[in-house]
Amino acid sequence: MPIGLKNIFSDFLHLLFPEYCYACERTLVPGERIICTYCRLKLPYTQVHLLAPEHNPLAIRFYGKVPIKYTWAYLYFNRAGRVQRLLHALKYKGIQEVGEVLGNWYGHSLREHGLDSAFDMVVPVPLHTRKKRQRGYNQADSFAKGLAQSLGVPWSDKVLIRTRNTSSQTHKSRPERWANVADIFKVVDPISIKTKRILLVDDVMTTGATLEASALTLYQAGCAEVSVCTIAAA
Ligand SMILES: [Zn+2]
User: Fold this and answer.
1) 12-49 pLDDT, tens per residue?
2) Taking Cα atoms as reference points, which of 133, 185, 180 lies closest to residue 162?
3) How far is the CA of 40 from the centre of ligand 1 (A)?
4) Helices (DSSP H) in the chain: which residue ranges?
5) Contact indicator for 49, 59 with CB cutoff of 8 Å
6) What is the pTM for the complete model shown?
7) How far is the centre of ligand 1, averaged over its atoms, from the C-alpha of 234 (Å)?
8) Residue 32 Cα, ligand 1 centroid: separation in angstroms?
9) For a Cys staple, 230 with which of 58, 66, 81, 205, CB 3.0–4.6 Å?
10) What is the Å distance from ligand 1's center to 155 Cα?
11) Beta carbons of 108 and 147 less than 8 angstroms apart
12) Ion ligand 1 neighbours, Cβ < 5 Å
């Protein structure tokens, strides 16, 4: 279809089926996608990628547990706010474009600060196969993909798998944690991550326990360095 015709067609579709901002539910205008311009300006950005690691408040969650090179979250989680609505759309309404758009935007910001050369591979924290089958997708995948695209770094959802659904690392000592992670996550193909600098991606960072367990598994399999990045930090 010629481009002019394609635009007319998409404007026509827009009239018939207006799209809504997943952060505020207002109708999007042509040129906007998934999130309106106003919400994009108003989102609670953490900007932690601009801080020195020792001044990054999120990094503390991993101190004494596992070495993490960079600890980033794009947004602060706010209950009953824009970020919660975006995460809800991503996680429960099947709107994977939410993750992709946010990943793209954050990837561009990271790139502007020369941080795109800090990684060899982007790896999402996997869901257990059963849970993934129930939901139909892993909500971390689209954010990982969006980030990887704009950083120009390959991504893979095949190297790390989850063998057990839930486990709390919080009350375990360090040796217990190391022993325990062995049966939560597994690296399927250790050769593919050997000596690689991995950017580990998830949707929300709370205590950091899941990211910690994934990172430990990646280190045990021989990667060089792990950094973490999530859509939001609670
Ligand atoms: Zn909006």
Assistant:
1) 666 666 789 999 999 999 899 999 999 999 999 999 99
2) 185
3) 7
4) 3-16, 37-42, 82-92, 97-112, 129-135, 139-151, 174-181, 190-193, 209-220
5) no
6) 0.88
7) 21
8) 10
9) 205
10) 29
11) no
12) 21, 23-24, 36, 39
Q: How far apart are CA 192 and CA 187, in angstroms?
A: 9
30 Cα to the center of ligand 1, angstroms: 14
pLDDT in tens, 57-75: 999 999 999 999 999 999 9
CA of 31 to the centre of ligand 1 (A): 13
Length of the chain: 234
With a CB cutoff of 8 Å and minimum separation 6, the contacts of 119 are 151, 153, 197, 198, 199, 227
Distance 19 CA to ligand 1 centre (A): 11
Q: Cα(121)–Cα(153) distance, rounded to whole angstroms?
A: 6
pLDDT of 1 strictly over 90 = no
220 Cα to the center of ligand 1, angstroms? 42
Give me ligand 1 centre to Cα 204, in Å: 20
Residues 100, 142 contacting (CB under 8 angstroms): yes
Using the mean position of ligand 1's atoms as its centre, give its distance from the Cα of residue 2 in Å: 31
- Band of residue 53 on the pLDDT scale cut at 50, 70, 90: confident
Q: Which residues contact 219 (CB under 8 A, 6 or more apart)?
A: 66, 67, 226
Q: In the predicted model, what is the mean pLDDT of residues 92-104?
A: 96
